[in-house]
Amino acid sequence: MKTEERSDSSRPADEPAAPAGRAGHRPDLVAAGVGALLVAVACGVGWAWQRSNGELQAQWPPLLASWNPHVGPGTPAALTVAAAVVAYGPALADRLPWRRLLLTAWATAMAWIFSLALIEGWYRGIARRLTTKHEYLRVIDRFDDIPAALRGFTDHIVVGPPGNWPAHVAGHPPGATLTFVWLDRIGLGGGAWAGVFCIVLGASGVAAVLIAVRALAGERLARRAAPFLALAPFAVWTGTSADGYFAGVAAWSIALLAVAATRRSLLAACASGLLFGWTCYLSYGLPLIALPLATVLLITRTTRPVLPFLAAALTVPLAFTLTGFAWWEAYPLLVERYYQGAGGVRPYAYWVWGNLAAATLAVGLATVAGLRRTLAATPSAALGALHPRRPAPTAEAALTLLVLAALLALLAADLSGMSKAETERIWQPFYFWLLPATALLPVRGRRGWLGAQAGVALLVNHLVWTGW
Questions:
Q1: How many CB atoms lie within 10 A of CB 180?
Q2: Sign of the C-alpha dihedral, residues 380, 383, 385, 390?
Q3: Residue 406 pLDDT > 50, yes or no?
Q4: CA-to-CA distance for 170 and 369, rounded, in angstroms?
Q5: Distance CA 213, CA 225 (A)
Q6: 7 — pLDDT class (breaks 50, 70, 90)
Q7: Omega of the bond prior to 27 within 30 degrees of 0, cis?
Q8: Given pLDDT bands bounded at 50, 70 and 90, which one contains residue 19?
Q9: pLDDT of residue 1
Q10: Is pLDDT of 391 > 90?
Q11: What's the per-residue H, E or C state across the chain?
């Protein structure tokens, strides 16, 4: 499947991406209003619930945050980046040569993430974040002998035995901690380097998503999504947690499989599999990335990359298992540890929908409007993709299927009950693939929607202390 077949270059640049009948602004505004109402209800109900018994374990639900209006050193930079993207982003996305657009989008995302993090200052916003009592850098000295640490890793997950891991170390497979151990070994130790690493890798996910969307749905839609990806509201949390790094790795796995499927690249298939294997050892919830990966194959109607992908992916669990860590033995212990802490107190009855309110803040109201268009197009896109005699999906249908796969993965994580709160940062690997839905919005309203996206991030970062 050639990229040019998806580019739809014959269309005028200002033609709405959505098919006729879905191009009106009013339904989009209604969808955004419903998203805003969900957030308002979650805030009101959450505040009352938390005040009554404290069991939500969050000071400003649905976010893990506390009320703290403030400005900081990053405020002028954040406002400048937001204004520049709103004013010039759509035009540059349409006109820049493709490779330059990828680099510009990546650089803009980094500037956006850094500026938001620096609203709290360098130390509090970046250098300190991964050094607190719950974080990975607290256990670097316990990995002097890596094979021994891996062999005994599961012994310290559950609270009780001496030396149990901090919350985030216990809550993730050891690939996450090993990343920071290796950074320390090459001379990039400490919270500042760890924070910069997560920001740079997290921002690179923007380029990965653009590459995937171009391969699967054409360059026109990829260009329309570019400013929204660069100005993502969840950048508030990308700069303050390792989940941004996880999101970047997962994004490149999907992008490389899209390249492998459309260009018949053995190297890309192997690289995608290797990154997916590593993704599964960064977070116990990220095997769900298999849903977007499978959707790539559904869209392209090929199974050629499957064998090299699987062969490369299996090398990661094989290496960890031979070294002494078994994922399938650790996961039940992680579930036990989860319910020993806040997860055992936080009520499912609130968080199963409160999580979705947090996700609305993380992806922004423009994405909610784009998801309305995605859901409206889902029946025809799904029927077309599953019918063996129909032609390959159109550009819009391909994008619809990709976004829908990420949405289903997010909903599966939500229903599992293993993501009660903190989803504004934990679900970043899924959020990346929801934002391309903004490419389905009419072209003439892009600046307004971009302004709404930036406004959400700026308000959250300036009104509350996120804690991550």
A1: 28
A2: negative
A3: yes
A4: 37
A5: 9
A6: very low
A7: no
A8: very low
A9: 39
A10: no
A11: CCHHHHCCCCCCCCCCCCCCCCCCHHHHHHHHHHHHHHHHHHHHHHHHHHHHHCCCCCCECCECCEECCCCCCCHHHHHHHHHHHHHHHHHHHHHCCHHHHHHHHHHHHHHHHHHHHHHHCHHHHHHCHHHCCCCHHHHHHHHCCHHHHHHCHHHHCCCCCCCCCCHHHHCCCHHHHHHHHHHHHCCCCCHHHHHHHHHHHHHHHHHHHHHHHHHHHCHHHHHHHHHHHHCCCCHHHHCCCCHHHHHHHHHHHHHHHHHHHHHCCHHHHHHHHHHHHHHHCCCCCHHHHHHHHHHHHHHHCCCCCHHHHHHHHHHHHHHHHHHCCCHHHHHHHHHHHHHHCHHHCCCHHHHHHHHHHHHHHHHCHHHHHHHHHHHHHHHHHHHHHHCCCCCCCCHHHHHHHHHHHHHHHHHHHHHCCCCCCCHHHHCHHHHCCCHHHHHHCCHHHHHHHHHHHHHHHHHHHHHEECCC
Mean pLDDT of the chain: 93
Residue with structure tokens 């559950």?
158
pLDDT-based confidence at 389, cuts 50/70/90? Answer: low
Q: Tens of pLDDT along 272-295?
A: 999 999 999 999 999 999 999 999
Here the tokens at position 334 are: 């992680």
